[in-house]
Amino acid sequence: MTTATAGTVLIARLDSAGDVLLAGPAIRAVARGAREVVLLVGPHGRAAAELLPGVSRVVEWRTPWIDPEPSPMTGAHALRLLRILRRTAPEQALILTSFHQSPLPLALLLKLAGTPRVAAICGDHAGSLLDLRHVVDETVDVPEAERMLALVRAAGFDLPPEDGGALAVRRPLPEVVDLAGPPGYVVVHPGVSVQARAWPAENWARAVQDMARAGRWVVVTGGRGERALTARVAGTHARDLGGRTSFAQLAAVLAGACAVVVANTGPAHLAAAVGTPVVSLFAPVVPAARWAPYGVSTVLLGDQRAPCRGSRARECPVPDHPCLSSVNSERVVEAVDRLTSVEEVVR
After folding, report:
1. What element of type H or E holds 247?
2. Which of 9, 8, 24, 25 is nearest to 158 (CA)?
3. CATH number of the domain enclosing 32
4. Interval 121-153: pLDDT, tens
5. Of 16, 167, 279, 313, which has the fewest CB atoms closer than 10 Å, so is most exposed?
6. What pLDDT, in 10s, does the model give residues 255-272?
7. Sign of CA dihedral 268, 276, 242, 336
8. Model pTM score
9. In which element (H, E) is residue 301 found?
10. Are 166 and 25 in contact (CB under 8 A)?
């Protein structure tokens, strides 16, 4: 059995909220064997980081080689991170990256800050930058949560036997009945951070109308910058919570839902972390085998063989966005019915 033999361990996951949530099982494994876990994140992942069990402290740095809105890579910017790392003084660091991201720039900065032991998944020659260079077959699509867990296991950490490795958030969550209504509603989250993953707004609006007409209570969620979209999608048929929830409140709203309809974006993983079934409108620009909602009942919609598959495109490279525009409201309503009927039987 793993015992708490490590001191301070720094874990880095420097991109989006969804990526940070998917790191949750790996973080809990490290927390089992460490005195303190410090999580280094970018600004887009901080709110998610603060919800994760096992995290002792969160520190933030915008990473020029990962962040979608990168700061210039200057000496002053690097020194800000070096100061954070020297104050933290981890005994070891684990760099969690996606298959297309390099851990080596951060490994270099960790070594310059005096970190004794650095581990990462890396297919490139790393010289003395990595003390544990874990190599995996990146031609095989493994769920991102499991890929990260494999690294921390290679570093000597593991989950306790009673932890099945699902995504999770800290409990209790905020009370949101006044916002969303009594539990049992359907959440529709139409916004995305990447345009290539978006379902057309008119399709979202039609799905909300169809579910409302079938007697469903529908709640539409979104960030502050998505208020126009959520208002359009909700119309007069649903409760519009666009821009009205913190990240923790959004988690609570999702936890009260019988199902969540969402594209491949952070709230899909947040729904999985609170155990709510997901209807996933998934554009194949990244592989669903890696990035679909993890560990919950899911219906995956969208043409996974479309020409854009595997392109990692941020703007749709195919005219008329056929991978998702071909999905109609009826299929979404059917998927919600299928998931909720299963849930009702389980309950």
Report:
1. helix 247-255
2. 25
3. 3.40.50.2000
4. 999 999 999 999 999 999 999 999 999 999 999
5. 313
6. 999 999 999 999 999 999
7. positive
8. 0.95
9. strand 298-301
10. yes
